Amino acid sequence: MGLRTFPSGLLRAVFVCSLYLTSSTFAFSAVSQASSDNSIAKPPAVVEANAQEVLLKVSHAVNTLNYEASLVVFRPGSEPVPYIWRHGILPDMAVTESDHVNSSPKPKTLAPSTPTNNTVEYLNSLNGPGAQVVRVGNKVSFFEADKPAFALQQSHIHGPIPHNLIRNPAAIFAAYDVVLVGKSRVTGKAALHFRVLSKDGSRYSYALWVDSETYLPLKLNTLTLKGEVLEQVQVTNLVITDSVHADFLKLEAQQLPQVRHINPPKEFALKWSITSLPVGMKEVKRDIHRLAITGELVEYKLLSDGLVDVSIYLQKAGTVPQDDVLIRNQSETFLSRVRDGLQLTVVGKIPAPTANKIMEMIALSST
């Protein structure tokens, strides 16, 4: 099949969203089938420790310590993007560094260490016009230049490091194997090195380094099926304090926008299904809505394995030619195909062969 480079309707809407994420050049190629030769062999565990237990300590540290990190996101072919990331516990719920480091909590102690109404978080992109995100408890406020501020009811900020990997690792264990490989040195600190590998080899793998003393993350590499680096998040400076950052204490409710409430979708049945999914991936959301740009009605499903999300859209094809559209923007894959008068689209941070397999598993109802 040929490739179209000028998508319309849904394609244009999702294409614009992908441009917003990054300004790097798109690469176009035909869909190829996944090969077992491309899968990454699991490295031997050279450290006698339970990797999952250590990741629970990582989540405990990320959720309970007061810290500020300077970090940079590197993507091949793009300018590095620097961030400031802060986290704190307001005074009445503070947990000191010594409480965490000098203890060896069991899983039952670590599991409840999720964000509470007393946790505060801040993420700021330092290049360009700037975009700041502030979380107070389960309220996340967004501030961008020349745009009205708004807030959503969310438990976390979507930052450069996947949320569940460092805050709720139990959510990824069904889809990924976690291996504690060994020790290293990152940002001038002794670090523990993990590999995170999808159980069926169908998704990208990850290399994670965490501070061996505090268990806070120091570096994360996203790797292709061949082991090439797609993206790197590097912490360049990390400061841990006994008390919350002074800027958090200055926050007042009047400074933050009102929460924008989004009505939950009604229960409904879609006339299509996905017969098979990658190991550990499941449907977490479905919706029917009209595109703001075209007004076209679109059916939507969101899949997740706890680490990455995959969106699937279905709409009437109209006059769209019978050609595949494949766009690969670094770790993002956009695949669209017309079948039986319907346009199917798969979008997510997954390899192109995996997007194609998901596409092939979509079963359309004859009624």
From TrEMBL:
Domain MucB/RseB C-terminal, chain residue ranges per copy: 270-362
Database matches in InterPro entries: MucB/RseB_C, MucB/RseB_C_sf, MucB/RseB_N, MucB_RseB
Record keyword Transmembrane present: no
Pfam families given in the database record: MucB_RseB, MucB_RseB_C
UniProt-listed Gene3D superfamilies: Lipoprotein localisation LolA/LolB/LppX, MucB/RseB, C-terminal domain
GO biological process, one term: regulation of polysaccharide biosynthetic process
Keywords: Periplasm, Signal
UniProt record similarity statement: Belongs to the RseB family.
Protein name: MucB/RseB C-terminal domain-containing protein
Species lineage: Bacteria, Pseudomonadati, Pseudomonadota, Gammaproteobacteria, Alteromonadales
